[in-house]
Design brief:
By secondary structure, this protein is mainly alpha-helical. Helices cover about 70% and strands about 0% of the residues. It is built from eleven helices and no strands. The chain is globular, with a radius of gyration of 18 Å. It starts with a helix and ends with a helix. The relative contact order is 0.08.
Length: about 210
């Protein structure tokens, strides 16, 4: 059973002041019990969004290590928590895992690339020194090994991220060219996202 918002809020509140409670949530990420894993992840995700420093201070390394796990569930967890903690990354730790994180755009699964693309906006906003590299990787999805239909699905999420940060993007021409390439994509979602993006952004970029 999926935990309620009230349950998650209570776990987050406890983790804010209790180191053992926070450590328990971290341990829960590796649980074979799906309910425990889900409860831990949802609590930590909320904590990373609302108070990233709390999670970043003592648990960055253990969460970053999850990127090396071959399981797609583990990668999904790491993708979200690392993106959330990026806002508290005063030691430039994300820089050390940057290519490992974004190499998941070319992962053999579909889930990992889609969610890296979706979380790219959060990393972009948190890490100004990495912005140009993030944009270059997102607009290079066509160079990944994925089939055209999978590329289109990943691109839909990339377009969503790029729309959130477009005003701050330096190479707007490259982004617009990338998005135009998906107006006739095999994915209805990608087509819809591309058309909406261009309708909103082409005039402002002119």
């Amino acid at each position: 059973m999926k935990p309620t918002e009230t349950e998650i809020a209570a776990l987050v509140q406890q983790a804010l002041t209790d180191k053992e409670a926070l450590a328990g949530l971290i341990e829960g990420l590796a649980s074979k019990n799906l309910e425990t894993k889900q409860r831990s992840f949802l609590s930590l995700q909320k904590l990373a969004d609302s108070n990233p420093q709390r999670l970043y201070k003592d648990h960055w390394d253990s969460i970053a290590a999850i990127l090396d796990d071959p399981g797609v569930d583990a990668k999904y967890i790491a993708i979200y928590l690392l993106a959330g903690m990026a806002a508290a990354d005063t030691d430039d730790r994300f820089d050390d895992i940057f290519y490992k994180y974004f190499s998941l755009l070319d992962d053999n699964t579909l889930i990992a690339p889609m969610h890296v693309a979706l979380n790219a906006a959060a990393v972009y906003k948190a890490k100004p020194e990495l912005r140009d590299d993030i944009v270059k990787l997102l607009v290079s999805i066509d160079r990944t090994h994925h089939t055209p239909s999978r590329k289109a699905l990943i691109a839909a999420y990339a377009i969503e991220s790029l729309d959130k940060v477009f005003d701050d993007v330096e190479d707007k021409a490259a982004v617009l060219e990338f998005v135009r390439g998906y107006v006739k994509a095999p994915s209805p979602k990608a087509r819809t996202m591309a058309k909406a993006f261009l309708k909103k952004r082409e005039k402002t970029a002119a």
